[in-house]
Amino acid sequence: MLTVENLSASYGPVRALDSVSLSAAEGEITAVLGANGAGKTTLLRTISGLVPPAGGEISLAGRDLRRVSTEDLPALGLAHVPEGRGVLAELTVEENLRLGALGARGRATAADLRRIYDLFPALADRKNGLAHVLSGGERQMLVIGRALLSRPKVLLLDEPSLGLAPRIVARIFGLLRGLVHDEGLAVVLVEQNARSALSIADHGVVLNLGQVVVRRDAAALVADDALRHAYLGF
Ligand SMILES: Nc1ncnc2c1ncn2[C@@H]1O[C@H](COP(=O)(O)OP(=O)(O)OP(=O)(O)O)[C@@H](O)[C@H]1O
Ligand SMILES: [Mg+2]
Prior knowledge:
Layout: E1 2-11, E2 14-24, E3 28-33, H1 40-47, E4 55-60, E5 63-64, H2 73-76, E6 78-81, H3 93-105, H4 110-119, H5 121-125, H6 136-148, E7 154-158, H7 166-183, E8 186-191, H8 194-200, E9 203-208, E10 211-217, H9 218-223, H10 225-232
Parallel strand pairs: 3-8, 3-9, 6-7, 7-8
Antiparallel strand pairs: 1-2, 1-4, 4-5, 9-10
Helix pairs in contact: 3-6
Adenosine-5'-triphosphate binds next to strand 2 and helix 1.
Keywords: Amino-acid transport, ATP-binding, Nucleotide-binding, Transport
Family: Belongs to the ABC transporter superfamily.
Domain ABC transporter: 2-234
């Protein structure tokens, strides 16, 4: 569904992404792992057109994304959930969710909202409350739910587990795994939390200094003690 080939990007003299190739298939989760500054966020931002590529190709279902502007991506089926769980704090949970449909498909229907509330019942309980009262885990559910309202084919997630309790991470990741399986979504999951990410991922890609250093099936990565210790810290 999403294919990235030899993608490079720089910030002035800093080459943050150096000829990275990656793909994400329907019904699969590709985990992108690596330490601080490895280039994970830059990879997602370059795919989304927020950082201009210095070279390489990006395609979504065969369509060249380098010629598409960022604001047109949701309508083509690409949703990006940035790091930091940004919500509009003075809007309600439901108003925040509705925003997810706007750029992609117009107005959210009652069925669209019901689908998100079925997936994340905690959001249904708080739908008329202001977004700023949500816990970190609920906020993460809200930003994922908002992205899902655009009905994406490909979902890019940047560090969804950051700062959340392990129990909450397990719950959100379990829901994500079910969603990918049921709906055939293709997910690129950027995480420093390699252990949790690999527990739900099909494939793992490890970045170091902007380059891919390892690419394996998730189970094979977890099983390789030397690789795990060298790159993943668990
Ligand atoms: N806006 C920017 N201007 C200049 N350099 C940047 C900018 N954003 C990132 N960098 C640099 O690019 C490199 C890759 O950063 P990036 O944020 O992509 O890494 P990351 O893997 O997401 O790290 P983290 O795990 O800390 O989120 C780093 O050396 C970083 O300092
Ligand atoms: Mg990052």
